[in-house]
Amino acid sequence: MVPMNKLEYPVNGESYVGPQAPIVRARMRVGLLGGSFDPPHKGHVHISLEAIKRLQLDQLWWLVSPGNPLKEQGPWPLERRLQQCGELARHPKIKITALEASLGSPYTAKTLTFLTRRYPATRFVWLMGADNMASVHLWQDWQRIFRAVPVAVLDRPGQRHQVSLSIAAHVFGKDRIAEKQAASILNVVKPAWTILSVPLNYESSTRIREKHRS
Questions:
Q1: What order do you get walking across the sheet with 59-64 strand by strand?
Q2: CATH assignment at residue 184
Q3: What is the number of structural domains in the chain?
Q4: If you write DSSP's letter for every residue of 63-127 in order, what string do you get?
Q5: How many CB atoms lie within 10 A of CB 92?
Q6: Reduced to 3 states, what is the DSSP secondary structure of residue 163?
Q7: pTM for this structure?
Q8: Angle between helices 42-54 and 78-88 (to 10 degrees)
Q9: Highest mean predicted confidence (pLDDT) among 17-21, 46-50, 67-71
């Protein structure tokens, strides 16, 4: 694989080199939205803007993964997906980064360990869809994710009922924060998680890929 620091991408109208993380100040509230973004679409922007508003975030980082270890077929090349993200996400609070590539691992638990150690004064929150909440127990070191940062679960079409039935919701049931108090989740002792009911957007990366294949 070509070293990430040798590649240059146009992101948000600027030259982006390598997997550096965005610049943050102490006590900033930062949301983390991970995924392959293969491809990115308006649904990603939709939930990002909802999270920024509902959780009162200063920034929201799209962590564009080099790959998904739970999927057999790999995504499009990272440089292509980064460029697409930059072209789509033009909100000043949405930041694009490929820092997971420099860690040599696509695993969320490892990424969060790195970020919380590198930025101890930053208040992070992990964002994921209800479908991911239903299967997060299959992720490597998944319980460490909930203990590293608070988690906000975003509604997805037809998936909400799976949240309450998930293994993660059972294991961390006593740590759930009421939706009306969601903005406080970045200030409470971890583990803590909440679910946000957001206006639904039915666009998905899977549907877009299937459309292009047909």
A1: 94-97, 59-64, 29-35, 123-129, 151-154, 193-196
A2: 3.40.50.620
A3: 1
A4: EE-S--TT-SS--S-HHHHHHHHHHH---TTEEEE-HHHHHT---HHHHHHHHHHH-TTSEEEEE
A5: 7
A6: helix
A7: 0.82
A8: 60
A9: 46-50
Q: Is the pLDDT at 144 greater than 50, yes or no?
A: yes
17-24: which pairs have CB atoms within 8 A and are 24 or more residues apart? 18/98, 18/102, 19/97, 19/98, 19/99, 19/100, 19/101, 19/102, 20/97, 20/99, 21/61, 21/97, 21/99, 21/115, 21/118, 21/119, 22/59, 22/61, 22/95, 22/97, 24/58, 24/59, 24/119, 24/122
C-beta of residue 48 within 8 angstroms of C-beta of residue 94: yes
Place of tokens 């939205």: 33
Token duo for residue 87: 């072209």
Domain containing 9: what range?
4-213
